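[Discussion] Sanity-checking designs against the backbone

I'm trying to build intuition for which residues belong where. Below is a structure token string of 479 positions. I'd appreciate it if someone posts a full sequence so I can compare it with mine line by line.
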């Protein structure tokens, strides 16, 4: 099995699950080292796992075979765990086309239909729409993010263990460390008797000063191997003006893993085998970055493990009263799609709050057209009343005209709803139930769900769950 480095709010649970699956966890953080009765190695990881900035999931990046192996294992955390390979993985080099500018940088079209953002400060010269450039993905972003992958015109190779990097177009050896450590690290290169590729500069990072000689040597050899792969690809690559967008070198892969509510509760169970874990540990931490300290404090005050605690005992009222959403708050509806994209259906006012985990959101309609599948006219001034409940696999929206007349009810079938402070979050499962003002209640868009299964975006188990939920919702609305 592959070696993996894990960081972020899911680290303890994922370490438990991956150790049980036979993976080797390396470069463990101090808390992980304390919690586990295990010997964590220091060899270069084949892949890294990091929590996404919005805490909704994880990024798995590294050797393509290792990423595929890890992604396949973690996709089985729970039925609402979804994964997507990134067409523009970290470290990939490509020829790209500038499609426009935004703020202080340019937006580029990358291979595979991906887009990226190149800050003007990181560009090699003046950039304008239509230019063709060679760029490297420095920081990929998940498909549900509102941001593009961060690009750079420089080419570098990073050690996933954080010890060093090689930078193409530079030379010499430098160290980001105090003078004495910098001198020692510079000498390390000579002692290791490893040849840095010509035209590449070696930059030791501060963490390397605390690593052993063998660890530094293993990391340097692994980075050199990837740099040589990139160099060979660049030697045969067409000029950007001749072919763009076009992939040039993809030494690493990136897969994104999104955790739904049931997945987070399953990860709680993994963590609970190792450390005191309150109900909803990962759900609370995912809701708000400032919640982590409170969760850690609460767990430190608990004397015994919470084995046997029902995961449904999430203290929703306490969470909502502290962070939201509650009466009078603004709440967006983040409508995830099975292919990884996320749409924002709008933001409304929370008009009703239930301590058991339900809210009613009122949105005013400003556009005209027709309500999907209801066959009724959408007019400015209409009102959408959406009732959302934490953990439910569906939610209804009732549309009414300015005069109060009902224009229909639309039931979205989705992964279990999570009511975070600023947004209700879920992934739509295509199949829905509609109840028009006139006509029968019916299930719609099952063909789209079938297509999502065929494309690998939705598992058979998840699709079956969605169809069962839709059938029950149809029956309830028909009675």
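Best answer:
Here's mine. Compare freely.
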């Amino acid at each position: 099995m592959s070696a993996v480095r894990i960081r972020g709010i899911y680290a303890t649970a994922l370490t438990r699950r991956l150790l049980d699956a036979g993976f080797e966890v390396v470069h463990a953080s101090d808390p992980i080292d304390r919690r586990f009765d295990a010997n964590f190695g220091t060899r270069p990881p084949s892949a890294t796992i990091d929590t996404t900035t919005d805490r909704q999931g994880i990024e798995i990046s590294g050797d393509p075979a290792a990423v595929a192996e890890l992604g396949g294992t973690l996709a089985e955390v729970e039925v609402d765990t979804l994964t997507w390979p990134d067409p523009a993985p970290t470290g990939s080099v490509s020829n790209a086309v500038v499609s426009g500018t935004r703020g202080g940088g340019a937006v580029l079209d990358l291979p595979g239909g991906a887009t990226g953002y190149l800050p003007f400060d990181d560009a090699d010269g003046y950039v304008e729409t239509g230019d063709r450039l060679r760029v490297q993905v420095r920081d990929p972003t998940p498909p549900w993010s509102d941001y593009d992958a961060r690009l750079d015109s420089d080419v570098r190779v990073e050690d996933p263990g954080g010890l060093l990097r090689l930078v193409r177009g530079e030379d010499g050896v430098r160290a980001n460390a105090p003078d004495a450590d910098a001198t020692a690290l510079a000498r390390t290169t000579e002692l290791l008797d490893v040849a840095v590729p010509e035209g590449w500069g070696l930059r030791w990072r501060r963490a390397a000063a605390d690593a052993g000689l063998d660890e530094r040597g293993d990391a340097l050899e692994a980075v050199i191997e990837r740099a040589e792969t990139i160099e060979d690809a660049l030697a045969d690559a067409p000029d950007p003006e001749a072919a763009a967008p076009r992939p040039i070198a993809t030494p690493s892969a990136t897969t994104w893993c999104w955790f739904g509510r049931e997945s987070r509760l399953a990860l709680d169970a993994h963590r609970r085998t190792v450390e005191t874990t309150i109900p909803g540990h990962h759900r609370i931490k995912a809701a708000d970055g400032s919640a982590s300290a409170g969760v850690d404090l609460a767990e430190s005050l608990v004397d015994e493990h919470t084995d046997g605690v029902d995961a449904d005992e999430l203290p929703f009222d306490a969470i909502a009263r502290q962070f939201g959403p509650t009466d009078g708050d603004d709440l967006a509806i983040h409508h995830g799609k099975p292919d990884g994209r996320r749409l924002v259906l709008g933001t409304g006012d929370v008009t009703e709050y239930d301590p058991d985990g339900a809210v009613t959101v009122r949105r005013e309609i400003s556009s005209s057209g027709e309500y999907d599948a209801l066959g009724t006219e959408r007019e400015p001034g209409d009102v959408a009343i959406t009732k959302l409940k934490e953990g439910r696999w569906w939610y209804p929206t009732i549309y009414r005209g300015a005069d109060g007349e009902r224009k229909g009810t639309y039931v979205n079938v989705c992964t279990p709803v999570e009511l975070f402070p600023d947004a209700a979050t879920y992934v739509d499962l295509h199949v829905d139930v509609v109840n028009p003002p006139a006509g029968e209640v019916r299930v719609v868009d099952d063909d789209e769900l079938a297509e999502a299964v065929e494309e690998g975006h939705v598992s058979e188990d998840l699709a079956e769950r969605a169809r069962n939920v839709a059938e029950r919702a149809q029956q309830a609305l028909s009675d």
